[in-house]
Amino acid sequence: MDYVIWSKMYSMNVPYIDNQHKKLFVHMNELYSVLKDNNAEGSIFQKLNDFIHYSELHFKDEEDILELIEYPQAKLRRHKRIHDNIIEQEYKLNDQLLKGDESGLYNLECFLNSWVIRHILVNDKEFQPYLAKYRLYKPKELQESTFFAHI
Ligand SMILES: [Fe+2]
Ligand SMILES: [Fe+2]
Q1: Residue 58 CA: which ligand is closest?
Q2: pTM to 2 decimal places
Q3: Tens digits of per-residue pLDDT, 7-43?
Q4: Which of 5, 8, 25, 71 is positioned for an S-S bond with 66, CB 3.0–4.6 A?
Q5: 30 CA distance to ligand 2 middle (Å)
Q6: Using an 8 Å Cβ cutoff, are 52 and 87 in contact?
Q7: Count of C-beta atoms within a 10 Å radius of residue 29
């Protein structure tokens, strides 16, 4: 069963980024499954670790893209701080669970319920106009690059 479902409102109109966000949804759904369903396969720690590692990979990739499209430095720094804060929260939740803290599971569920909506719909959407502008004006020498073929 899927707990978070992808819809058009999450789209950044850039398949490269959308595909990574969709993969984050897959990791979140797997994590929800082990939280909600006793018969689900895998452990919470394993699924949480997969989710943390994929978040780190996606955030790094997204920051590289923002750097390359010359997203204003002040906005980029702010976005990076938000990413760092999310990763910090994820590790804190992992620690809480490892310590057997009873509020850990509840906190993890609250975190899952809020972060994608807040981050994709509010924070990531802030750079969407820059991606669209970049698509129109991207430098010629980068047009052939496979990486930028996705943007
Ligand atoms: Fe982001
Ligand atoms: Fe993102």
Answers
A1: 2
A2: 0.88
A3: 999 999 888 899 999 999 999 999 989 988 877 778 9
A4: 71
A5: 19
A6: yes
A7: 17
